Amino acid sequence: xxxxxxxxxxxxxxxxxxxxxxxxxxxxxxxxxxxxxxxxxxxxxxxxxxxxxxxxxxxxxxxxxxxxxxxxxxxxxxxxxxxxxxxxxxxxxxxxxxxxxxxxxxxxxxxxxxxxxxxxxxxxxxxxxxxxxxxxxxxxxxxxxxxxxxxxxxxxxxxxxxxxxxxxxxxxxxxxxxxxxxxxxxxxxxxxxxxxxxxxxxxxxxxxxxxxxxxxxxxxxxxxxxxxxxxxxxxxxxxxxxxxxxxxxxxxxxxxxxxxxxxxxxxxxxxxxxxxxxxxxxxxxxxxxxxxxxxxxxxxxxxxxxxxxxxxxxxxxxxxxxxxxxxxxxxxxxxxxxxxxxxxxxxxxxxxxxxxxxxxxxx
Amino acid sequence: xxxxxxxxxxxxxxxxxxxxxxxxxxxxxxxxxxxxxxxxxxxxxxxxxxxxxxxxxxxxxxxxxxxxxxxxxxxxxxxxxxxxxxxxxxxxxxxxxxxxxxxxxxxxxxxxxxxxxxxxxxxxxxxxxxxxxxxxxxxxxxxxxxxxxxxxxxxxxxxxxxxxxxxxxxxxxxxxxxxxxxxxxxxxxxxxxxxxxxxxxxxxxxxxxxxxxxxxxxxxxxxxxxxxxxxxxxxxxxxxxxxxxxxxxxxxxxxxxxxxxxxxxxxxxxxxxxxxxxxxxxxxxxxxxxxxxxxxxxxxxxxxxxxxxxxxxxxxxxxxxxxxxxxxxxxxxxxxxxxxxxxxxxxxxxxxxxxxxxxxxxx
Amino acid sequence: xxxxxxxxxxxxxxxxxxxxxxxxxxxxxxxxxxxxxxxxxxxxxxxxxxxxxxxxxxxxxxxxxxxxxxxxxxxxxxxxxxxxxxxxxxxxxxxxxxxxxxxxxxxxxxxxxxxxxxxxxxxxxxxxxxxxxxxxxxxxxxxxxxxxxxxxxxxxxxxxxxxxxxxxxxxxxxxxxxxxxxxxxxxxxxxxxxxxxxxxxxxxxxxxxxxxxxxxxxxxxxxxxxxxxxxxxxxxxxxxxxxxxxxxxxxxxxxxxxxxxxxxxxxxxxxxxxxxxxxxxxxxxxxxxxxxxxxxxxxxxxxxxxxxxxxxxxxxxxxxxxxxxxxxxxxxxxxxxxxxxxxxxxxxxxxxxxxxxxxxxxx
Amino acid sequence: xxxxxxxxxxxxxxxxxxxxxxxxxxxxxxxxxxxxxxxxxxxxxxxxxxxxxxxxxxxxxxxxxxxxxxxxxxxxxxxxxxxxxxxxxxxxxxxxxxxxxxxxxxxxxxxxxxxxxxxxxxxxxxxxxxxxxxxxxxxxxxxxxxxxxxxxxxxxxxxxxxxxxxxxxxxxxxxxxxxxxxxxxxxxxxxxxxxxxxxxxxxxxxxxxxxxxxxxxxxxxxxxxxxxxxxxxxxxxxxxxxxxxxxxxxxxxxxxxxxxxxxxxxxxxxxxxxxxxxxxxxxxxxxxxxxxxxxxxxxxxxxxxxxxxxxxxxxxxxxxxxxxxxxxxxxxxxxxxxxxxxxxxxxxxxxxxxxxxxxxxxx
Lengths: 363, 363, 363, 363
Hints:
The structure is a homotetramer of 363-residue chains. By secondary structure, the first copy, chain A, is of the alpha+beta class. The first copy, chain A, has one domain: Chorismate synthase, AroC fold (4-Layer Sandwich). Chain A is built from eight helices and 18 strands. In chain A, α1 packs across α3 and α6 runs antiparallel to α8. The relative contact order of chain A is 0.19.
């Protein structure tokens, strides 16, 4: 399977950065889930570029649902989202067509698609394609919320500045993140991060960062010991988001430096429910949810489109050359990636829950 | 799909720690691949426990191939590996049956399997089940090697001690790692790491670590932009290995702290082949191989079986209690996990290559 | 997987009979395949209703390709087809909403989707949804033709009248079928079949029929012994076409009455190529193509929408009632189903060929 | 996926006719299902050859369960069945190694596996491989029976002699079929069928036949509109059984000759449950179960191993030649195939039910 993810609940995405439209087909969502078009629009606007720290390309990102919703509710059959591309300036890319941009997929796409790929604006590799994921994810997030499963992502680090981690009351944190265009838990770090992004931008450069995601309310017993552990399926979809180069769960790489007595989360009973005193494992043990918050951290590399001159190769002649990228680009995408991660995680969990408890569970 | 991974080349694993046998079915490997039983045995011995820093349980891990190999070569039909469990002491687990061991899957298995799971020695969640993965992986590694694709993993960190990373000549490094039971690139760190493990063991504790893997020779153009990026499929299988809690590619989480001009790998032409000057992206751009070495780092949590008293809950009564784990356990598994990662990576790549170039490519 | 079929080449379909648009996403087709929009339009018109023996609903079925095609050729990334619904008269269905139409999916959809399904015109169960399959199939058929693989389907029987079977030169037959709106090999049976359809129509009834399909040029060695035999994967997609209730290969059910000496196809060498003297097995042995023409026969039940009064149950009250279906319906769909079968078979074979020989094979 | 079928519940089969052992891995069956080894043995004996109308090869077919069952119940993790091959006489095949047997997979296997396949006794293509399917199916049948879902198959026709079809009380018929080694509903046809088989055998020939299967108790609302209709998934697994060349549901090909008013099954309410007055559709409408008995008919071609001289080609030289097959073969397999169909249908339905209602439903 290529551009389709999931089994019981699946999403198929399509489109290119400078094609006529992009979109997604979301299949397997239980019938009867309320589809809130305002919420979808709000999620789309979280992903959309805005302000000085994003690309100057502006897309309305108006989502049109053309199937699978009837009388405001999901029917249980495929939900199709289409989004028109409007503000395309393909001439910006003309001269780059055969100069592989470092950090981009131009060269690897060329080796896979033999030059037939739509190279304009990154084509099908563009971060723009995540718009379909966000539209689909909005329905998944709504369906989960109705079952008291909540998801939130904040910028844990950007330009060397760190936010605090989720507290012991992650649901309060999720609420706090709300619809902030630059989601941090400690408001005092926001301006420093933005200053870091602008400093990079001022020299034609870009920055990356870390995102931290929490999911609350997932019942214990979801996931598989092999090969579809919750970590496996979540990392699978998260690693398909452009620019993601690392994923960890719970204390993740930090666990490598602990001893067993530090890392093990002791169990205790709380009002008849079994929970853990700490949550180093990030809510997943043996690949299966333990009922505690699921914690995911994601590394996002700096935007590869920078304005500095770079060494590269001409794909037609295989000769060394240099390139300067013009066009409109983001000096950082970390703040826009937040809602993409939420969406990906929601889609994956809807699939896992439907597999575990049946196709009506999210109804 | 549960205990099966892969599409064109797939592996299905089965068995429990204290059952009569464990094993795997490897399907889709091209016909005509030489099956070297000595190499399989050598790989098995890399995984097998030995010495003071491993469990006292000793299994011969003799692999018997009961299908799919004819006249010493693969037939193209399923290859089945069976391995007898011999040194089981199930009585060690009797009293633990309903006391959920912290850091283990006991509680999550209980919530998924409602108490019907074989709890002895971790049952199907046991690291022992990786033996089938290693046997299968040995055939995959051989098939790849015949196409000049090589894989090697070393212990990047353990007990706070760091090894050096792969050099610019990773194939030399891979050769050097060879069949070392404790694979490090800088021999001088080995004793320090082992001392760290033994120190933890002496107080009934355990340690984790980081593994670093390199793959050379993968042709450019393998992988998908969505959702089966190379990072996605590799992380999927790696995260299903018990104790893995983090996976990163190239500079991974380190990329989050770089600028675009630092992170982008400039292209250059070398004897007509396009390569990159640096390899921060770890050989994968846009989800697709670029022909450079693939670099993966994996976080392994400390072994959860420790000898210290721990707080837990009785799954039958839901009441708080404490437990002391006896039995035989590893104070570290990082050195044994190395060959498991190699095997998982090899199986995943065989699948990707067969999907890309057809089922005869590895012939 | 629900509305997605295939692995290396896959198709995802969406839409409802009376929604705003229907369509399909075709993924995995090799890059560089010429996309002939005129051919797509011609295939669509074969599927489209016309004349006295089809529904009075008329749809332009103009296909718009919104992704995956660049400069007239496939890019290798998802190709999306959208088709507007124009001539919808949903009021025709108002009163039927809760009266389950016999032979239709109303009742089973109600049990699966709990009343949330879009019931208008059969919603997602409508034969109209095959339009997306035909658009996708047109690209698949073109790609196969470029590799000398040809597909043709004729009406073997309708209203009790039989056409002759494919001759020893099936490619000539395929050419002959061409773009006939009522595809038979023996032109003399055509009027009799149509007379049978009109006779049924005149009394408010409908008829079914048999389709026979041939595929030439598939190389030997494609398919799996288990579980993805060519028969398995072809029947899988064919049985998902509405109204199909039987599928057979080669002499099919007729083989049940033969002896082994009658049924076995002797091999012989012809200019160095191994072929069979007869083709009772329909080009497939042990689930794998043998290089001979693939022969498939499909049973299509009569259109369930008839104008006679029928007994049924009110889904709201569970009480017995009667219904008379108004609206616009086909007295036969057998002639329109022909191109749907061709499309389904082509999509399935593109997948099998890409799995066998790699994703570039159809380039 | 190759030798694995199913998604939530899956089966993987392995082995060759003359290898050391064959078997299957059954994954995803709910935990807590009672595993009745006597019932498994009884099912195996239905498949096993016996008497004058079967091969003289006699295998004990003792099934050993080596994983996934604990204290007599399923654990929820993979159940592995292994069966030793004992009565192999590979010398019988020596001279046939490169003479493609007509009607067999020798030639197609050669084109797929390039001569590396284990050709002895048909290798992985042998009907013997169905033993693993039957062992797995026995557990599936038990699980379904505990939910009041029953499956039965009888020989509808053999050697030109027809049995009656299932009555209006199919559960009584299923009970009647019981463990008969030659399952017919009308005992009076049995001797005629066997006489037909023996007549063919006496002249070194073989016969085929038709099987009819009924499944009762499947709740309404299971299956998908596209592409995983119940007909699609059932035909997928049934067509992978060697020798099956046709599958139909309900009146199947007979529906092609009916009018809509004859074919439509009127609904009626019976004690609050909606059912149909007739069952021409075979319990499936729009790809989804309607709660009525599911009716499947399967065409089985005559055993291709006959003792008459046949024309063929030498695969090494591509030259025409003749062959006479010796060895031990079945003049008919229709009576042995019955339990294979039951098993395949049961495995497929367990998967569909788990997908629809969750992994605990069969508990």
